[in-house]
Design goal:
The chain is of the alpha+beta class. It is built from 5 helices and 5 strands. The relative contact order is 0.14.
């Protein structure tokens, strides 16, 4: 019995020594650690409101700088070229019809033909669409009603440097390939043709006239 008691006492002393050593090591480790960056504050205090954010949440500086848009210059009329003894001046080839697809394809055909024949194309543009109302009268009565609305589409191909020897060949090819329902006219380009490109605004023009009269 005495031997067992002595062994128990020795084991207890060894365990107490180990616990003391472990506690001493833990104290050393905790003392060597750096202090925490922030400590938990009480629920009533809010220290983060006074702390700097260092630009957190800002994103506009990441976007590229917007370049200011340049104002579009007003369209100016190009100088009209005069005719000579061997060449025509500025000519306007006008294509008009009710089917916009056919009119557009025929004007493209004329443009490509001019490029192949070496005729200079100054401009190629569309005129404002014109609407025509077809009115019918009732059999019994004088009241009229709209039966159909026709829209006329027009395209202009302005050419120059057309020689007198090439003009008959050009007109023959263009007339032979003219589709049905499409009207073709060729005339000398004048200033009035340039003004037809812009849509008329009678209300605005009337207001401008009234302002000028008051001044």
């Amino acid at each position: 019995m005495s031997l067992l008691i002595r062994q128990l006492q020795v084991s207890l002393t060894q365990q107490s020594i180990l616990t003391n050593q472990v506690s001493a090591l833990l104290q050393r480790v905790t003392s060597s650690l750096p202090a925490p960056l922030c400590r938990l504050a009480p629920t009533n205090e809010r220290h983060y409101r006074t702390m700097p954010t260092h630009g957190i949440g800002r994103w506009k500086y990441l976007l590229p700088k917007e370049v200011p848009r340049k104002k579009r210059d007003k369209l100016q009329m190009k100088p009209i070229r005069g005719s000579t003894a061997t060449e025509y001046g500025s000519l306007s080839v006008k294509v008009s019809g009710y089917d916009m697809t056919v009119v557009e394809h025929y004007s493209q055909y004329i443009h490509n033909l001019c490029n192949r024949l070496g005729v200079r194309v100054s401009e190629s543009y569309a005129l404002p669409t014109k609407s025509t109302e077809v009115m019918l009268m009732q059999e019994q009565g004088t009241k009229m009603y709209i039966d159909a609305l026709l829209k006329t589409h027009e395209r202009i191909v302005q050419i120059s440097s057309m020689t007198a020897t090439l003009c008959p060949t050009f007109m023959d090819v263009v007339l032979q390939n003219q589709p049905e329902g499409v009207q073709l006219s060729v005339k000398e380009h004048v200033e009035r043709d340039f003004l037809e490109r812009f849509k008329a605004r009678p209300q605005l023009e009337g207001l401008m006239a009234q302002v000028n009269q008051r001044d």
